[in-house]
Amino acid sequence: MYCIISGTNRPHSNTLKVAGQYQSILKSMGIPASLVSLENLNVLERSERYVDLEEKVLIPSSKFIFISPEYNGSIPGVLKCMFDVSDVAVTWWNKKALLTGISTGRAGNLRGMDDLTGILHYLKVVVHPNKLPISVVASLLNADGEIADQITLAKINSQLMDFIPF
Questions:
Q1: Whose C-alpha in 22, 64, 151, 153 is 20 to 30 A from the C-alpha of 87?
Q2: Residue 82 and residue 42 in contact, taking contact as beta carbons nearer than 8 Å
Q3: How far apart are CA 76 and CA 8, in angstroms?
Q4: What's the confidence (pLDDT) of residue 134?
Q5: Do residues 82 and 38 lie in contact, with contact meaning Cβ atoms separated by under 8 Å?
Q6: DSSP bridge pairs for 134
Q7: Do the beta carbons of residue 97 and residue 124 sit within 8 Å?
């Protein structure tokens, strides 16, 4: 089971838009994937709602796709808090992950993906080497909030095709 995690709690984020597009692309390939948004999710405590999400979506998932925006040269604190509040051994150990960085600037959250890789390795998650930095994301989105740039779409498709047999 695949799970896409939009790594920010910012309302109406470009990160969530890109995560939704990843979900649509996977669906067009015949691969269902859950989409987890951290928007309106309290990850500061193991609430009943979080435990329910963990049991129904995170634990059954064997592959994760993290779409993470750049916050201060790294990942959002809310994403780190999600890991911290998890039942780590059951939720993350021995699973696989694919990383995509999002930024409004020119680096596509390269440093954040490095930080996230380190965290995931500590959690015993195997990270796929094809990490995709998506820079100047706002200029790539069309009026419907989807990436319309054909070069970026080709890179996303290639990244997913690498990850599926991983």
A1: 22
A2: no
A3: 6
A4: 95
A5: yes
A6: 102
A7: no
Beta bridge partners of 71: 74
Provide the phi-psi class of 42: left if phi over 0, else alpha when psi is between -120 and 50, else beta. beta
Q: How big is the CA angle at 129 (ends 60 and 79), to the nearest 5 degrees?
A: 50
Pairing of the two strands 63-69 and 132-134: unpaired
CB atoms within 10 A of CB 143: 6
Question: Three-state SS for 61?
Answer: coil
What is the rounded average pLDDT for all residues in the chain?
Answer: 95
pLDDT digits (tens, 9 = 90+) for 15-40: 999 999 999 999 999 999 999 999 99
Calpha distance 119→135 (Å, rounded): 22
What pLDDT digit, counting tens, does each position of 62-94 carry? 999 999 999 999 999 999 999 999 999 999 999
The amino acid sitting at 143 is: A
The Cα 166–Cα 161 span in angstroms is: 9
Domain boundaries, the chain: 16-163
